[in-house]
Write the structure tokens for this entry.
Amino acid sequence: MYTIKEVAKKMEVSEHTLRFWAKCGFFPFVERDKNNVRVFSESDLDWVKIVKCLRACGTDNKSIKKYLTLCLEGDSTLKERFDIIKETKKKALSKMEELKQQLEMLDYKEQFYMDLIKNNKKDIWNPISASK
Amino acid sequence: MYTIKEVAKKMEVSEHTLRFWAKCGFFPFVERDKNNVRVFSESDLDWVKIVKCLRACGTDNKSIKKYLTLCLEGDSTLKERFDIIKETKKKALSKMEELKQQLEMLDYKEQFYMDLIKNNKKDIWNPISASK
DNA sequence: TACTTGACTGAGAGTTGCTATCAAGTTATA
DNA sequence: TATAACTTGATAGCAACTCTCAGTCAAGTA
């Protein structure tokens, strides 16, 4: 059993964000102790992990709430949830692909700057000169 | 030479965003025609590409503006710009790593749902049951 | 020539997803 | 007993868009 602070540390999500997510209705099943303090169970952490995953893949909070609702509705929504996961995978893969391209660009730029610095050349590609 | 609309289409950035970026001071060198319409040159597109890249890697707009300022200052800032690119690469790589992990998780989930659907099993992992 | 259509412009309001601040309540420690 | 260390929700602020809109201009059409 974990307090919100412990969850924040363990899952690398800020307390602020966890409270915000709570307000979004992401944790309707998280229990409270007699002082109204949230008590996260081990399996609640699994759910936090899923939320983190969906967010990282670009899913907006409304859709996460919807996914949760489907989960809570039970087995009749399995197919729909499966589709959401597949869709999320697609988004993640395309993000990956984009990052790969950006990395190529950064590699090129890095090399470019390195050459300029090493050989004491002029920066011929530079927004000023480039726009002329 | 391109209008903002053409740039938007070519670079896959919305016109709104381009105007917003313009307001952020990202395009001080983009020329205007006699009707005050922005005219992007081929090399301005290269700069848009760099902005896109930096944004995709998580650089905030203030830092992008700063990078631009360094570019405009000329060769004396080469080393500093080189460091920014290296830092950006680091961020991109760690984003990549995170995405890879999220993908693993999604693969697992996908398989999991597939099994449940195929074998008509009950969803034993479900926020409800999981939180009990 | 008047009229419509279709850019493009900047100003400003609205949205999302945090992020920070704060007062109020509870518990542990000195 | 007081004071520090938690928690809570409410609220404000922020970044980066995103949308709406009134206004300007140019070209095409009746």
